[in-house]
Design a protein that fits this description.
2 copies of one chain form a homodimer. In chain A, helix 3 crosses helix 10. Chain A has 16 helices and no strands. Chain A has a single domain, classed as Na+/H+ antiporter like fold, CATH 1.20.1530. In chain A, about 60% of the residues are buried. With about 400 residues, chain A is mostly helical. Chain A has helices spanning about 5-25, 30-45, 60-80, 85-90, 95-115, 120-130, 140-145, 155-180, 190-220, 225-245, 250-260, 265-290, 300-330, 335-340, 350-360, 365-390. Helices cover about 75% and strands about 0% of the residues of chain A.
Chain lengths: ~400, ~400
């Protein structure tokens, strides 16, 4: 079978499995995202190992699926950005700053301490701490979308805190690499800061000033699906430049693009089209691929203990750090707890940092597998915990959360 | 730059270039598809060679783009199938049979004769003839969609003839491989016929019987973008089984899926969603990638003469064969001419046959490049010629073509 036919079959199976898993989870009153993640885990090397059996053996369809998943997470964060009202989000600026910063510092300190306890040296131990700093908000955003509360006060604070967290985590990593002289292409700290600020300023100014007139212009041209093509191109370019120019995560760029396209008069058309593209094709691939990449068989007894410690620290340090941050920012206890829970899930930024550590010799290959499992477990736990936290009710005096139905 | 960032940038550039090229062509009163193909040619190794310069050098982003293009052509043929009324199409059955069969026989004979004239031996010469047999109707379908005449009598005859042509071309190849004993996995002729018939019967019966109730069922479930995900999964599976089980082109399976989904009550929802996905993302990639794969610098003076002969035979033999076939089927001169022109473009089936010949030692690597260029030239010529043929008017007595606006 040719590579194309392998890909066609794999896409069909992955999307079918994702939707079936999501549906099963929904029937069990769980978020769909949980079912889609678990289906991926079952199809992966932990059980079925779909890419190494039958028609897929010997091909590299898995690589293409993983690349499409990366495009999927970019589109997902764009859609999350579309849902956000920037005015509302800025209101949560104080909470976002506190929750984001403490959500970096506490995991960094706790992660380092745990690694030191397991006998690691200072630099590798600090690296374990840094791996735990970066939240991946896409799973939380997806869960909040499903729950219809992404645009609530807590949802917006969470999204803001994740952006702050992303920026601070990258800054911490850059400082570490500069001080220790690790990493071949490490930029000096001042350059990291300058480029990051430059990216945010240019991206936001450009988006605020030019998205509306450019979209209107493209819409006036006789181009098939012109507006959506334009949105896709701009989103991909924002994602690319966020990482290449700004040094932050690609999803941060996609998120900014979404926030500002929501302010144009084409919001509804863009939302309909991108929702279709994202949820019928790319997001199922992204969610299943997370499970596909993990292998729970990789971990032996010793590794299991460290892994468990890693997971416990990953969960507790974010709940504590971001939760206390949100409380200091003015949220009530339940709201702070929900923000803390929403920050638990780790993802691509954590994996990117781990890869840098692997290349620099600060992270062993066994640790790499453990980090992947940790990412998966936090990703599995986050929707469960968030859903549970949203089933808790405030005392009657508290203001009800905005429950407008989101993208689901 | 990571593979993912390369892909993100490449996707943005390819989609942007495609839409810009399509718009430029539209401004010059040419079909958009022509501009998108030419932009691909300019970005490819013939001029810019984008995948071997700057950020893409050394990666394999090009492979992923090509695979996405293959998914794109499947979606494109699905959308073409959606546009088709099966009752109307069956009315053109006689024309389709004549035009399809003569559209295989004439290019086979002429192609073989020309190759013999250029000093090739019998088997390789016969293979040149076979390469010229298989029409790729996707470019013609796209052009007719843009012109708003896909659902005209001629458009339907063209689509039917292309399906017949696909089946007959594969049968001829199978007979040839069986008789000459070429090809490792060559199936015996009876098995080829049985599997082909089996695929068509099972696919059509399944689609006619189960598409409507299954789509209704999926629509009733709480699944995000459930109907569209279901349509995508089924289309991919039909495409896959067409080639793997039926031995015909994957696009034939996608086309059948489109024809039968159009008969469900979800037609409009499916059409809107698939149009968005296809035209904002996959089709631009498909059209640009055709040009990206060709290299006009590959051809030396001697090769140029054979290439020119190949192109002339490719064009004339289809116009003559399918045109005369349509005339025998009862079309008037202009209608027959248009059907003949619509059959000119070659594509993936021709390239698949060429690859089989390459592996069997019947096609040289130079010939392979020539075939790619021939495919590209016929693909460039077809929209130009079709557009010109639709600018010709019938005498007042002739019935006007159905000019309902199609997918553009």
């Amino acid at each position: 079978m040719t590579a194309t036919l392998q890909l066609v079959l794999a896409l069909a199976l992955v999307i079918l499995a994702a939707k079936a898993g999501g549906y099963a989870a929904t029937r069990l009153h769980q978020p769909a995202v949980l079912g889609e993640l678990l289906v991926g885990l079952l199809l992966g090397p932990s059980l079925v190992d779909m890419f190494h059996i039958g028609p897929f053996a010997g091909g590299h369809t898995d690589e293409i699926i993983y690349e499409l998943a990366e495009v999927g997470v970019i589109f997902l964060m764009f859609v999350a950005g579309l849902e956000v009202d920037i005015q509302e989000m800025l209101k949560s600026g104080k909470v976002a700053l506190f929750a984001g910063n403490l959500g970096v510092i506490v995991p960094l300190v706790f992660g380092t301490l745990v690694a030191l306890m397991f006998g690691q040296e200072l630099y590798p131990a600090l690296f374990v701490g840094m791996i735990l700093t970066a939240t991946s908000v896409s799973i939380s955003a997806q869960t909040l979308l499903e729950l219809g509360v992404l645009k609530s006060k807590e949802g917006l604070a969470l999204l803001g805190a994740a952006v702050v967290d992303d920026v601070v985590a990258i800054l911490v990593l850059s400082v570490f690499l500069a001080i220790t002289g690790t990493g071949d292409t490490a930029r000096p700290v001042w350059l990291v800061v300058v480029l990051m600020v430059l990216f945010f300023v240019v991206a936001i100014l450009f988006a605020a000033r030019f998205f509306a007139p450019l979209t209107r212009f493209v819409d006036s041209l006789p181009i098939s699906e012109g507006v959506l093509s334009f949105v896709i191109v701009v989103t991909l370019l924002f994602a690319w430049s966020a990482e290449v120019v700004g040094g932050v995560a690609a999803i941060t760029g996609a998120f900014i693009a979404g926030v500002f396209f929501a302010r144009t008069k084409f919001r509804e058309e863009i939302e309909n089209g991108m929702h279709t593209i994202t949820y019928s094709f790319f997001v199922p691939i992204f969610l299943v691929s997370i499970g596909l990449r993990a292998n729970i068989r990789d971990i032996d007894a010793n590794g299991l203990v460290f892994l468990l410690a890693l997971i416990v620290v990953a969960v507790l340090s974010k709940v504590l750090g971001s939760g206390v941050g949100a409380r200091l920012g003015g949220f009530d206890n339940l709201g702070s707890f929900r923000v803390g829970l929403g920050m638990i899930s780790r993802g691509e930024v954590g994996l990117i940092i781990t890869t840098i550590g692997l290349n620099a010799g600060l992270v062993s290959s066994e640790e790499y597998s453990q980090v992947v499992i940790m990412v998966l477990v936090t990703t599995l736990l986050t929707p469960l915990l968030l859903r549970w936290a949203y089933s808790l009710t405030r005392r009657p005096t508290a203001r009800a959360a905005n429950t407008e139905i989101g993208g689901q």
